Amino acid sequence: MGYRIALIALGCPKNQVNSEQMLYLLSEAGHELVGDPAGCDVAIVNTCGFIDTAKSEAIDHILELAELKKAGLLKKILVAGCLSQRYEEEILQELPEVDGMLGTGSFGEICTAVEAVMNGDKPLLFADKNGPIEEIGRVISTGPGWAYLRIAEGCDNWCAFCAIPGIRGKYRSRALEPILAEARALAAEGVKELIVIAQDITRWGKDLYGKPSLAVLLKELVKIEGVEWIRLHYLYPDAFDDELIDVIAREDKIVKYLDIPLQHINNEILRRMNRRGTGDEIRVLIKKLRERIPGVVLRTSLIAGLPGETEAEFEELCAWLREARLERVGVFPFSPEEGTPAAKMTDRCDEEEAQRRADLILDLQAQIMDDYNLATVGKIMRVLVEAKSRSGLCSGRTFADSPEIDGTVYFTGDAEPGTFANVRITAVEDGELAGEQV
Hints:
The chain is of the alpha/beta class. The chain has helices at residues 13-28, 52-70, 82-86, 88-94, 110-118, 164-168, 176-188, 206-209, 214-221, 242-250, 267-272, 279-292, 311-324, 351-376; strands at residues 4-9, 32-34, 40-47, 74-81, 100-102, 124-125, 146-150, 152-153, 172-173, 193-197, 229-233, 254-259, 297-304, 328-333, 380-388, 393-397, 409-412, 420-429, 432-437. A hairpin with a 2-residue loop joins strand 18 (420-429) and strand 19. A 6-stranded parallel sheet has the order 2-1-3-4-5-6, sandwiched between helices. Helix 9 (214-221) runs parallel beside helix 10 (242-250) and helix 13 (311-324) packs parallel to helix 14 (351-376). The N and C termini lie far apart (53 Å).
């Protein structure tokens, strides 16, 4: 029997892929998938449990569904993903409205969970989070014209501030052939841009071949007909080698946009973070990338206010940002995550100070990003079109913009979503680019 089901996907791109896999399994089982949980048999929340804001967002969604259930507009609530993996006992105790849970090793059991809750049971499905990656089809929920391509699961880096290895398990690479088969299928569906994702794509293949082999994978991906852009998230700085840099520089399909989570530049803070490598090595890498990949756009994420970060170490980070002029920077105030070594460090600044430092970095970075945007005025740039209004105003992204985190180009023209357009940039408006199709 088919049920009416709504799925709410929260969190990172990796989680989005898991949501797409659950949608596929539910669809194949004959269930009706809808966008609004009101009037549904089952609502599923695929949660993030990484930082406080993400946890709060997930709990807010669960409480909203609980209100629908109380009003008789929803029968059952299932919670999946990182929050349930991390806080199973707490959810059971504090959110009695939840009818069942799935951990990060059990996305493939979603249909079993749906049948169980509809039969009055309370399924708690927590398979081995370190188990083999299940090869499951997907209902693509992104685009038009682009999709994520997940190449690995889990993480072995154990950064001192991060709970992900404990939630998602050890690093496991997907095998080469299933990745290529999925990429070919996506291309056949009209996907022009593949965004290669994992917690750390630079280490892909180490568990399969004894050494990191991302360059090998990229050499095969660029051969796929129909794929025109390949974007890389996330490349860890310590695992770059010359072969990988050469492939990125040589292959036109690999967009010259690299997301490299650096977190900091000070040697002592990096050591406390349990990051491999030093600030000096990061400086050398950035210089090498600039020299060997002309026009490369670099994105990073940083943490402000880690325990032990003094004003001097924070100023070193700011001075380096002014010097390195990274085009894209995201910054988070330090969040002490339960069970991580950094949460036990006592010499941390208060939350307000950590937020102040993060805001200062954003202010500093805003000028760098404005300068980058202004330098594009007058240029003709290739844009992947994502939307088109009735008035003929189109919007899309250049190679320098990853979806949902970077900027948008708004332009006049007749291009269709999911295709490419050449756009002359004519202005910068509120941090976004404006232009006209040529």
